Amino acid sequence: MTGGTDNLVTLPPESGEAMHRFIAKLFPLCRSITGNGVRATLQAIAQRIPLTLHEVPSGTPVLDWTVPQEWHIRDAFIKNARGERLVDFRQSNLHVVNYSVPVHATMTLSELRPHLFSLPDYPDWIPYRTSYYTPAWGFCLRHTQLAALREDEVYEVCIDASLEDGALTYGDCYLPGIIEDEVLLSCHVCHPSLANDNLSGIAVMTFLAQYLQHCPQRYSYRLLFIPGTIGSITWLARNEAHVEKIKHGLVLTCVGDAGPFTYKRSRRGHAVIDRTVPYVLRQAGLAHEVIDFFPYGYDERQYCSPGFNLPVGCLMRARHGQFPEYHTSADNLQFVQPVALETSLAVCATLLATLDGNARYRNLLPKGEPQLGKRGLYRAIGGQQHARTREMAMLWVLNYADGEHTLLDIAERADLPFQHLRQAADALLEQGLLADCGEESAGALYSSLSPRILEQSPSPSHSLRVRGDKVI
Questions:
Q1: Cα-based angle 238, 277, 322 (whole degrees, multiple of 5)
Q2: How many other CB atoms are there within 10 angstroms of residue 82's CB atom?
């Protein structure tokens, strides 16, 4: 069986452009793990999908961590003796080490140098650096800027910022399905002006939520827009009794570049999600690599920590930390491509439809093949390729519908697109040749839906804000 992108959910041609415009809107916001940049980002998402905003007060214990203070920055610069801004936060919010404590002083270059960060190998790029949990301050600048600073000059240094009690904010989009079992989707919302490592995941997940609102759903879907690490730890701490409902999960990041896909397995290694993602990528004929879980990266390492061990993998294109633009100013609006965003969205929609449509059946006439012709399920004249593919899918389903194999098992064994098996099972169910094995009925998303990702939500979305455990 030769795969191809025809085996992905079809999206309208403007969906990639629409996601890129959404990224461009969010790009200038100065996000961090707390503060108004995160809130503004979540409010923009809430204009498109139903989103509940949670605010967890600073100082709240969450597992082995504590919710930090809010960081607010108003301005920052390095000036020379003539008052010229040589490094200017107003030109790029990457110029300041994220979460820097306030400073206003004059100092020589030798005194300032320990607080300066550049990339000698990429002299025109600005690096992205953070100091979330250790009080510190610093500037990130192009290496060409650093080389132009003079040892014999005194510089005015200012970071007009504050750390104060407030709250950590995250967004939760819950889309109820037929059953309460959940598929968890998660992305981080804490990086300023990084298009691939941050905003691509936000955009794909937002538009995926819009897609899901138009689908018949068997599973319930929970989409988390959270600050990295502390956000997932906070959500897990507040929802420990709830996590048993999560049957599949995926962290999305770096899905807007033109590189091949990378899938990082869950800690379990052989969870259904660990089979579904590579299967969908193979069927679509998309270049990809599958790597084993390791305890570093994004929030999959929190969901997969041994005390939770959830079936949550991570989908990327370029691997985090392994492309030169990672955590630099080169991760910009030109680095992410509409066609790449659109393909990533189609892959996600297809794998969710595969998870949602997967089920286990039993053949009610298992002795010999049932006569399909008299039931209108077999072609009268041979040689029609489409009909043959349809019939082969039915024969595979009938032969392996033994109560032990799921449709995904059969699809992998037959090397057929999942939608063919799903449609075959629907036809056989309608003719009384199959019975489900007591599980909730799987939704036939491919056969019943012509989805459309909308430039705007179909109806005005709303958001709720929660402080502590109260909606306000």
A1: 80
A2: 7
Distance between CA atoms of residues 37 and 103, nearest Å: 21
Q: How confident is the model at residue 297 (pLDDT cuts 50, 70, 90)?
A: very high
pLDDT tens-digit readout, 238-248 = 999 999 999 99
**Rounded to the nearest 5 degrees, what angle is found at the Cα of 407, between the Cα atoms of 361 and 216?**
90
**All domains in the chain, ordered by first residue:** 5-67+167-357+453-471 (3.40.630.10), 70-163 (3.50.30.90), 360-441 (1.10.10.10)
Whether 52 contacts 115, CB under 8 Å? no
Task: HSE, CB side, 13 Å, CA atoms: give it for residue 57.
Answer: 6
Contact by Cβ (8 Å): 453, 345: yes
Q: For the whole prediction, is pTM greater than 0.90?
A: yes
Q: How confident is the model at residue 13 (pLDDT cuts 50, 70, 90)?
A: confident
Cα three-residue angle 26-30-35, rounded to 5 degrees: 110
CA distances from 91 to 102, 232, 321, 358 (A): 19, 31, 25, 50
Beta carbons of 375 and 428 less than 8 angstroms apart: no
How many C-beta atoms lie closer than 10 Å to residue 316's C-beta? 30
Residue 156 buriedness (CB in 10 A; 0-12 / 13-18 / 19+) = middle
The CA-to-CA distance between both ends of the chain, in Å, stands at: 54
Cα separation, 299 vs 228, whole angstroms: 6
How confident is the prediction for the chain on average, in pLDDT?
Answer: 91
Burial (CB count <10 Å: 0-12, 13-18, 19+), residue 260: middle
Distance (Å, whole) CA 384 – CA 376:
15
Instruction: Tell me the per-residue pLDDT of 323-334, one tens digit each, with 9 for 90 and over.
Output: 999 999 999 999
What are the tens digits of pLDDT across the range 347-379? 999 999 999 999 999 999 999 999 998 998 876
| Contacts of 393 by beta carbon, 8 Å cutoff, 6+ apart | 414, 416, 420, 421, 423, 424
Task: Please name the residue that has the structure tokens 């286990």.
Answer: 360
Length of the chain: 472
Nearest Cα neighbor of 209 from 194, 228, 231, 224 is 224
Tell me: pLDDT of 440 over 80.
no
Q: What is the pLDDT of residue 452?
A: 43
Q: Is 83 strand, coil or helix?
A: coil
Type of residue numbered 307: G
More confident residue, 4 or 170: 170
